[in-house]
Design goal:
Radius of gyration: 40 Å
Number of strands: 9
Strand order of the largest sheet: 1-3-4-5-2-6
Helix content: 55-70%
Shape: elongated
Strand content: 5-15%
CATH class of the domain at 74-227: Alpha Beta
CATH topology of the domain at 74-227: Rossmann fold
CATH architecture of the domain at 74-227: 3-Layer(aba) Sandwich
Largest sheet: 6 strands, parallel
């Protein structure tokens, strides 16, 4: 205080002397005594007083107390901030927008799959906006019975004494009036009804925000719901590259793919690699072969007891008590691919896979139980499970139980997939939906009692893949089907089907010398095992004819193609899609014999049949158009270019720009339009 007074007096003195100097400089009359110096040298005095005045003013400023800092908000059980928190900027902004758009109190629910990072998002939100609140509380809502105990503790934290358990909840909300604005997080809540007793009612609380995290559906009538998805692939890669030194972006991308971009799994993976000093490439290899085991390994620094393998166990245990049929459905889905699962796979199965599937209401409740607890996502008539939910459920199943369930799924899929891959116009879309599940169930050794079903599924899958131009994937599937059938007794006809499909694959791969003995053996087996005139014999004959043409044996191919056409016309009628295959085989023989005039009417007829039975962009129409273009080119017809260009567009749309067949079609179209 005295220093401030001295500084003030000094400042006044400086001002007084300075004014005298100014007057002297302005030509005032003579002053007595020492002030003569001021009169004689006013500019020197002014220059001397400037630093003195500046020093006095600075001293005065130094004495001013700093502005009071806002006090840090009080918190209750707020978890430590995650130093490795990654991404989620859009979700955090949206959460803040929703909470602050309300006029008074706002409640927002963050909903998502277990392990998707709901709690971490809520914690990060609290820390990012900590300065905006005067009080922040974190309540564990997983067990509704323990919420009252936490509120009693929270009441004491707020200074309430002698408060019973009945008065704790209203007492807390009432006390928060003096700590506005506030934030309360209810973490991992169950159904809305289990939390109603803990939420404020009436005018108990104002000017605050409530965030609820939950994996359970059904909150939209209670509050706004923010659905939190898995990480974007970029967020997944960023986390792994930052957490695990030496991880390349490409390896991180493949690890994220295996883990389904689930944040908890990615954190667990980083913890595993960091602790064991495992190279990312080695960790990726382990995921590819032992995913069910790897989800139980790896520790999180802030949550050492949490692993993906047990993340959903409480939900499954609850289902086991309340909805055992839902557990059965969950186990079956766990053995399928992490792709949409058509629910009619279960409702139309030849044997009851899930008992409730026969009753529409019970079935809807069964499926809804999985979606309601966040174990699956319902998309129209399909169910989608995260790949790590599937892995965790598989890991909990015994070996015998898994084998028996796989056998049931093999039989159900065999009944669900179209068997007439070539002749059924609706086969392709149905196969596209079911193929991932067929590949998942038939992977590895076939389950006991289902080797025959597995073999047929593998061969049908190979036929479909061949039909859409994927010969590379079709080949090993068909080879496995043949090996299984040859190990069984009484499978001559099925072995013939495997052989002719394998011959077609090798022929299309440009290896007719490998295809020929396969087709010849298939023909012998079918002629011995099937009735005379069976359409399967026609398929063998047409395949062998086209293979012989590739080997230059056109004269030997001609009677085979003609016989195939007679068999299919008798069995199916003149306008069946299978007749079109025989016509193309016969046209191929004539064309290769140098007789395009004989080939043209046959290819024209085959094209008319296909255009009448298949969608306009079907591959079979594209193939026929390209063959027609080559025949027309040989005849000197100008319409060959139009036919080639249309065929090239179909192959481009169905196979992609880089497929060898598309490139071949493009080269033909370019040549004919040049």
């Amino acid at each position: 205080m005295w220093r401030r007074l001295v500084g003030t007096v000094a400042g006044l003195l400086v001002l007084f002397v300075g004014s005298l100097a100014f007057n002297a400089a302005s030509g005032q009359s003579r002053w007595p005594g020492p002030l003569d110096f001021v009169r004689l040298h006013p500019w020197i005095v002014l220059l001397l007083l400037v630093p003195l005045a500046w020093a006095g003013l600075r001293q005065e400023a130094r004495e001013q107390p700093p502005p009071p800092r806002p006090s840090a908000p009080a918190t209750y059980r707020l978890p430590p901030r995650n130093a490795h928190f990654t991404g989620r900027d859009d979700a955090l902004r949206e959460l803040r927008r929703r909470l602050t758009s309300a006029q008074d109190m706002a409640t927002q629910v963050v909903h998502g799959l277990g392990g998707v990072g709901k709690t971490q998002l809520a914690v990060e939100y609290a820390y990012r906006h900590l300065s905006k609140y005067r009080f922040v509380a974190f309540v564990d809502a997983e067990d509704p019975d323990l919420i009252a105990t936490q509120f009693a503790s929270l009441a004491r934290e707020l200074g309430l004494r002698e408060v019973g358990s009945e008065q704790a909840v209203p007492g807390v909300w009432s006390s928060l009036r003096d700590r506005r604005p506030w934030l309360v997080v209810f973490d991992n809540a169950e159904k809305p009804g289990t939390l109603l007793h803990a939420l404020p009612s009436g005018d108990l609380a104002h000017n605050g925000h409530i965030v609820v995290t939950t994996r359970v559906s059904g909150w939209s009538a209670t509050a706004g719901v923010l659905d939190l998805p898995e990480f974007s692939r970029r967020e997944s890669v960023d986390l792994l590259v930052r957490r695990v030194p030496g991880t390349s972006a490409s390896t991180a991308d493949r690890i994220a793919e295996q883990l389904g971009d689930l944040p908890l799994a990615l954190e667990q993976a980083a913890g595993y690699m960091g602790y064991n000093h495992t190279a990312p490439e080695e960790y990726l290899a382990l995921l590819g072969t032992r995913l069910d085991e790897m989800i139980a390994r790896g520790e999180l620094a802030d949550r050492p007891s949490v692993v993906v393998a047990t993340l959903w166990q409480l939900g499954v245990d609850r289902l086991r008590r309340e909805q055992p049929h839902a557990v059965r459905l969950l186990e079956l889905c766990a053995l399928l691919a992490p792709e949409p699962i058509a629910l009619d796979l279960f409702t139309a199965a030849p044997e009851p896979l899930v008992p409730s599937a026969a009753d529409p209401l019970a079935w809807d409740t069964t499926v809804g139980a999985l979606a309601g607890l966040g174990l699956a996502r319902r998309e129209g008539s399909s169910l989608v499970l995260h790949r790590l939910v599937q892995a965790a459920v598989r890991a909990s199943m015994t070996g015998d139980h898994r084998a028996a369930s796989r056998a049931q799924l093999c039989r159900a899929l065999l009944a669900a997939v179209p068997h007439d891959v070539h002749g059924d116009p609706e086969a392709r879309p149905r196969w596209h939906r079911l193929l991932p599940h067929v590949l998942a169930v038939t992977r590895g050794e076939p389950p006991a009692g289902a080797a025959a079903e597995t073999a047929v599924l593998l061969r049908l899958a190979a036929e479909f893949l061949l039909a859409i131009g994927d010969r590379t994937l079709a080949l090993p599937l068909c080879e496995r089907a043949l090996a299984l059938d040859e190990a069984l007794l009484g499978r001559d006809a099925e072995i013939g089907f495997d052989l002719i499909t394998l011959a077609q694959i090798h022929r299309d791969l440009g290896a007719p010398q490998t295809a020929r003995p396969l087709a010849e053996r298939a023909l012998r087996l079918h002629e011995a095992a099937l009735p005379a005139g069976d359409p399967a014999v026609a398929t063998d004959l047409a395949t062998l004819a086209r293979t012989l043409c590739m080997l230059g044996e056109h004269r030997a191919a001609l009677p085979l193609a003609e016989r195939a056409l007679r068999i299919d016309e008798t069995a199916h009628g003149p306008d069946d899609p299978y007749v079109s295959f025989d016509l193309i085989a016969l046209a191929t023989v004539h064309f290769d014999l140098g007789d395009p005039e004989a080939a043209l009417p046959r290819i024209e007829r085959a094209l008319r049949i296909r255009e009448a039975r298949y969608p306009s962009d079907h591959l079979y129409i594209g193939y026929a158009l390209l063959f027609r273009a080559r025949v027309l080119e040989a005849l000197g017809e100008p319409s060959s270019a139009e036919s080639a260009r249309r065929g090239e567009r179909i192959l481009h749309s169905q196979l992609g720009a880089d497929h060898p067949k598309t490139e071949e079609a493009r080269a033909l179209a370019d040549r004919l339009t040049a």
